[in-house]
Amino acid sequence: MNENKGAIKKMMIILSKGTIENVYAAFVLANGARMEGIESEIFFTFFGLEAVHKKKLDSLRVATVGNPAMHIPTMIGGLPGMEALATTMMKKEMEKIDMPDVPEFLEILTASGVRMWACKLAFDMFHYKEEDLYEGVEKIITVGDFYKRSEGEGVHMLFI
What we know:
alpha/beta, Hypothetical Protein Ychn, Chain: A
């Protein structure tokens, strides 16, 4: 009897947020899939597009307001300089474990075969130009195009 054990064949990751913690979560998951021999694609939409915008990808920040995992009151998180402080601290901790910065991580993802797509709706809404995007983004596609890429058995979709 041939039993389907539900093997994961492809990870389809939708990145909608441009905070450093969300971007790294998507990148680590996409890279981890490739390391396990699983196809991996990232669809950058809304503020997630900042992770592949050449002028913005180096200045991603930690969200200090509205982030219960920060364990600080919202009023304190909103004080001037708190976001920059939290971002600096996070980046220092990431350096300690040799986590690549965003530009280097994008190169790693591209080299490992992660396919990257920009959302047409968000791209148009933010008035971006193709030359604004990191070169590893293959194409600007619609949500429908992304769903078509998700067809098949063993495909898992993850929204970050």
